[in-house]
Write a structure and sequence with these properties.
The protein is mainly alpha-helical and 255 residues long. Helices cover 71% and strands 4% of the residues. It is built from 10 helices and 2 strands. The protein is flat, with a radius of gyration of 22 Å. It starts with 12 loop residues before the first helix and ends with a helix.
Length: 255
C-alpha cells in the first residue's frame, strides 16, 4: 500500500504539469461530470479518463478504481431504481414500479461516479504529495498547516485501508466468516471492527502530530520550500480544455 500515492516517473505531459494545474483540471472535470445528465457525455468522459490513464501508464490501477467505484455505485443504483419510478413500466412493485427512466437514471449515476473519480485519482497518482503541499502554499497561498492537513488526509487513506484489511484477516483467522450472510449480517460483523480501527487511527495521528512538532512544524512558511512551481503552456492548455468540457457539460444538460 506504500505505493498507493507514489510519484510515477514518466515522460507524459501530465507528469510535467504544475501540481495546482493538475488539481484544478481534476476538480473541474469532476464538476463537469456532476453537471451533466447526458449518458453519452459521461461515457465520453470515462473514455477520456482511460486515455489519460494510458498516457500515464496507469491503466491497471485505474481499472481497479473503476471496479471499486462501480461496486459502490451499484448499491446507490439499486436504491434509485426501487425508489424513483419513471418512464415506461417494466416491473410492477407494491410501492411503485421499475421503469425505463429509472434504469437510465441508475446507469447514469454509476457512469457519473466512475467518470468523476478517474481524473482526481490520476492527478494524485502522478504528483508527489509534497509537491501538492508546497504548490498550495507557494502558488495558491494556502496556509501550510491547511495544505499539510489536506495531503496528510490523502496519505492516511491507504494506511487505514491496510489496517482494516489486517483486522478483517485476523477475524477470519479466528473463525469468523466475513463472506456469508446478507448485507445486514455483514454490517453487524463489520461494526465492531471500527473500534480497533479508530483506536489505531488515533494513535497514528497522534504519533504524526508529535513527529511534526519535533521537526518544527509551526515554524514552516511559504519561504521554507526551495522548489518553484511556474506555470507552463501545457498547464494553461490543460485548464482551458477542462473548462471547455465543463461548458460542454452545462450546454448539453440545459440546452
Amino acid at each position: 500500500m506504500s505505493n498507493f500515492m507514489e510519484y510515477v516517473e514518466g515522460e507524459s505531459v501530465l507528469h510535467r504539469m504544475n501540481p495546482i494545474a493538475k488539481l484544478v483540471c481534476a476538480i473541474v472535470l469532476c464538476v463537469a461530470c456532476f453537471c451533466s445528465s447526458s449518458l453519452l457525455f459521461l461515457l465520453g468522459m470515462v473514455a477520456a479518463g482511460f486515455a489519460l490513464a494510458a498516457a500515464s501508464t496507469l491503466v491497471g490501477p485505474t481499472l481497479g478504481l473503476a471496479r471499486a467505484v462501480l461496486l459502490f455505485s451499484l448499491i446507490l443504483a439499486i436504491i434509485q431504481v426501487l425508489s424513483t419510478p419513471s418512464g415506461a413500466l417494466l416491473v410492477a412493485l407494491p410501492w411503485g414500479y421499475i421503469g425505463t427512466g429509472s434504469l437510465l437514471a441508475a446507469a447514469t449515476t454509476m457512469v457519473r461516479l466512475v467518470a468523476a473519480s478517474i481524473p482526481l485519482y490520476i492527478a494524485l497518482r502522478v504528483t508527489k504529495l509534497s509537491d501538492i503541499t508546497n504548490a498550495l502554499v507557494k502558488v495558491a497561498h494556502v496556509p501550510y498547516r491547511y495544505a499539510f492537513t489536506f495531503t496528510s488526509a490523502i496519505r492516511f487513506i491507504p494506511l487505514f485501508m491496510s489496517d482494516m484489511r489486517a483486522i478483517t484477516e485476523a477475524q477470519t483467522a479466528r473463525g469468523v466468516n466475513m463472506d456469508e450472510g446478507g448485507m445486514a449480517h455483514k454490517i453487524r460483523l463489520m461494526a465492531p471492527l471500527c473500534v480497533p480501527l479508530l483506536v489505531g487511527s488515533v494513535r497514528k495521528v497522534n504519533a504524526s502530530a508529535l513527529a511534526a512538532e519535533m521537526r518544527g512544524f509551526g515554524l514552516r512558511t511559504a519561504e521554507s520550500g526551495y522548489d518553484e512551481y511556474a506555470f507552463a503552456a501545457c498547464d494553461y492548455a490543460g485548464m482551458a480544455a477542462s473548462i471547455a468540457l465543463l461548458a460542454i457539460a452545462i450546454t448539453v444538460t440545459f440546452f
